[in-house]
Amino acid sequence: MANESRPCPCDIGDRFDYGGRGQEVQVGHIKAYICKPSASTDKAVIVIHDIFGWQLPNTRYIADMLTTNGYIAICPDFFVGQEAWKPSNDWASFNDWVKTRDAGKIDKEVDVVLKYLKDQCGAKKIGVIGFCWGGAAVQHLMLKNPHLKTGVSLYGVISRFEDKHSLLHPTFFIFGEKDNIVPLEQVTLLEQKLKQNCKVDYEVKIYPGQTHGFVHRKREDINPQDKPFIEEGRKDMINWLNKYL
């Protein structure tokens, strides 16, 4: 990790004051937030939360944004009932906390969600996006899950999967230039490894001046200079999903 005393800077940013347009449902053994567009569609996106869990309003805001762009969006509780990280928690305990919440061990939950989307929602083309912890989970899924069509990893913690680059599906990686947890040398190495090993379409994009969490954890109205990059990141994410779903 880039900074052992603060192993994840997801607390940089804002908690949106946002209620959500969707509803909470039970999907097999886990709870999930789901939002559906008014017109019927067979396209869905699984949204993987960051360390603050599936109930963070910011993540639901992004899920609802996907819905306004025509997708069924579902954000399951990938911590399976375990507590999400709280800003008041002691960072010294973070590594022990995250060991019991492995971004590479969510396959059972993803299978349950895929079945729900296909059987209950009529989804045929399904992609995945994720933030930070969820971004690492996206990379894991793009390496092994044959049932997903594409993925967008937003500031995913690369160090969790640094030796694995043979992606099965087109994947878009979003990073901030000033991200303390995913330093630029890690991003450069990721690009090199993808170039050598990856047989599918991928893109790695670095957004100038942006810190960790900028697409879903920065309020657009706080720093005017950040707003274009927040909007660009969101637009790029939607465009990638539109291209492959």
From TrEMBL:
**GO molecular function (one):** hydrolase activity
From what superkingdom does this record's organism come?
A: Eukaryota
Localization recorded for this chain is:
Cytoplasm, Cytosol
Q: Which GO terms describe its cellular component?
A: cytosol
Q: Which residues form the Dienelactone hydrolase domain?
A: 30-245
Q: Which Pfam families match?
A: DLH
> What's the protein name?
Carboxymethylenebutenolidase homolog
Q: Which UniProt keywords apply?
A: Cytoplasm
Q: Which family does it belong to?
A: Belongs to the dienelactone hydrolase family.
Which species is this UniProt entry from?
Nesospiza acunhae
